[in-house]
């Protein structure tokens, strides 16, 4: 339930982020200049202030997107299992009698004889 809500908010933020990025001015002009000039009165907000507002909005939306993406990872319902599907299927196919206790296995290091050196 919580995961679905977070994913819905992330989707909304993605849509808003696309709109805000497309509204930002290009190298010479953009929609922000047209929006500022088209406002009633024309002097309430200049093109530079609109670009600053869009830039700050982009930063805030990107930070929210990142934070909610990390939060969504922790909100996923894992069904009570701490193992992945691959780990579970591997454990079903393994015969426990194939493994022996470490004390019953031979050492990988060859044994060396004690040599007494006379001085």
TrEMBL record:
Its main location: membrane. It is a multi-pass membrane protein. It comes from Rhodohalobacter barkolensis. Keywords: Cell membrane, Membrane, Protein transport, Translocation, Transmembrane, Transmembrane helix, Transport. Involved in protein export. Participates in an early event of protein translocation. It is found in: Cell membrane. The keyword tRNA processing does not apply. The lineage of its organism: Bacteria, Pseudomonadati, Balneolota, Balneolia, Balneolales. One of its GO terms (cellular component) is plasma membrane. The chain crosses the membrane at residues 6-23, 30-47, 59-76. This is Protein-export membrane protein SecG. Residues 81-119 are annotated as: Disordered.
């Amino acid at each position: 339930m919580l995961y679905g809500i977070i994913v819905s908010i992330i989707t909304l933020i993605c849509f808003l982020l696309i709109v805000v990025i497309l509204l930002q001015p290009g190298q010479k002009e953009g929609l922000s200049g047209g929006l500022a000039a088209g406002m009633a009165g024309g002097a309430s907000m200049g093109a530079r202030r609109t670009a600053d507002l869009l830039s700050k909005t982009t930063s805030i939306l990107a930070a929210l997107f990142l934070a909610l993406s990390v939060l969504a990872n922790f909100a996923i319902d894992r069904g009570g299992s701490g193992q992945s599907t691959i780990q579970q299927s591997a454990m079903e196919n393994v015969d426990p009698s194939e493994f022996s206790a470490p004390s019953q296995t031979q050492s990988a290091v060859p044994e060396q004889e004690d040599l007494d050196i006379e001085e």
